[in-house]
Amino acid sequence: MSTAAAAAVALLAVQASLPAHASGGSGYDATSNPVLFVHGYTGDGSNWNTMANRFRTDGWPSSHLDQWSYDWRQSNATTAQQLSAEVDRLLAATGASKVDIVSHSMGGLSSRYYLKNLGGTAKVDAWVSLGGPNHGTDSANSCFDTSCTEMRIGSAFLAALNSGDETPGSPRYATWWSPCDTVINPDSSVSLSGAANTQTACISHTALMTDATVYAQTRDTINR
Fold it and tell me: Is the model's pTM score more than 0.85?
């Protein structure tokens, strides 16, 4: 065997021995957490089909991908209580010590409430908000469910949620916002103090859940 060939074989052997994490966080490995997806207003767990399938392609077992559904009309505080029970269920089912939460739109509010008020910071490693109305949106002025009125700019719910530290505890917080999102107005509503805040390309509010670049960035953020 030539020196060059031997070197190539040695390099392949080293690469084969490296865990998936070492390739930039792109693949599932023993340190990866189960992912709990939290949909937004008028949505359900099926909204995450594209993203969940991408996680599966990258090695996450279906048991570690929880496309949770809830009654989006109720107060986000009520949803947070149900989310707390779902986190505990997922941890028990997988044997994991922490979960990663990926939320879209209004799903960011109930999950933040869980972190801030219901002890969630001890059970969540990374929290992601895709197009979340974290400081309110004027599009909520035209709907009247309890959950929707809580998304209005200046609502008592948001004032309490954003009081003090917007990113409490040890979880890693990250947000993504699009300059072409016509549902979250103003765009600056999404970003949180203390979070890694990322502007996307010009994509729609719902495309935040299906865009390949946002997926890859989300995956690599939670999987490290």
Answer: yes
